[in-house]
Amino acid sequence: MKKFLLGFLLFAVLAFSAYGADGSLEKVKKDGKFIVGLDDTFAPFGFKDEKGEIVGYDIDLAKEVAKRLGVTAEFKSCEWDGIIFELRSGKIDMVWNGMTITEERAKQVSFSKPYNGGGQIIFSKKEKPYLHIADLEGKVVGVQLGSSGAAAVEKHPISAKFKELRQYGSNMEALLDLDAGRLDAVVMDEVAGRYQMPKKGSLAYSEESFAQEEAGVAFRQEDVALREYVDKALDDMRADGTFKQIEIKWLGE
């Protein structure tokens, strides 16, 4: 009997260590909130509307998860190139902003299960479209600094044949330069770029992609309990239809 009790207690301690000892979920509950870091120009995932309020697909998902946990979601605008530092230094609790899951990032953060996917594709003007990667030879191409799109472009052999590769603080800055004729093309997330098309009106996009990717929510590697809660909450939202409602609202059918 003593051996059985000792074994049971050892199992309980190990289970607690594995699933709750990091305290990340309890800290969020105690604080009454979790802080989400994002690039607030990355529509439709997270961006400022006409009133200056942060809205978007990821914003609604995060708010719903917070509601189910009984806390509030607070949003902090960050420079994308330094957002992982913001996370690891404890200034934010997670990055929820269409962040592509990559091997390099996974060395620094822990990702949720993928919740969205798409490609890194070429956007150009309709009157002068570049629909294939090979078309970018000799062209001036823009990307967002620190983005997975920038990484995919830099790894591709075609980048050595660009006239110039320019890096911007945000995709919107790159699109503005494209509109002004200072760029020939912008490589960026398919979902984000296509969301801008009705507003820009003069964009063409490629069927060919530099990379097919999946997005996840990024956490500190030690925050296992918080990550597991978010994963479960998103699974529950898929099961009850809430996830689909938010998806249709921002991304369409």
Question: Spans with pLDDT under 50 lasting ≥5 residues?
Answer: 1-19
Tally of individual domains: 2
Determine and state the CATH class of the largest domain.
Alpha Beta
Number of strands: 12
CATH superfamily of the largest domain: Periplasmic binding protein-like II
**Overall pLDDT, averaged?**
90
| Largest sheet data | 9 strands, mixed
Known CATH architecture of the largest domain: 3-Layer(aba) Sandwich
Dominant shape: globular
DSSP helix count?
10
* N-to-C series of helices and strands: HHEEEEHEHEHEEEHEHEHEHH
Structural class: alpha/beta
Roughly how many Å apart are the termini?
A: 60 Å
Rounded to the nearest angstrom, the radius of gyration is 21 Å
What does this structure look like?
It is built from ten helices and twelve strands. The longest helix is centred in the N-terminal third of the chain and has 18 residues, at 2-19. The strands form two sheets. Strands 1, 5, 6, 7, 8, 9, 10, 11 and 12 form a nine-stranded mixed β-sheet that branches. Strands 2-3-4 form a three-stranded antiparallel β-sheet. A hairpin with a 5-residue loop joins β3 and β4. It has two domains: 22-116 and 214-251, D-Maltodextrin-Binding Protein, domain 2 (3-Layer(aba) Sandwich), CATH 3.40.190.10; 119-213, Periplasmic binding protein-like II (D-Maltodextrin-Binding Protein, domain 2), CATH 3.40.190.10. 39% of the residues are buried. The model is unreliable at 1-19 (pLDDT under 50). It is an alpha/beta fold and 253 residues long. The chain is globular, with a radius of gyration of 21 Å.
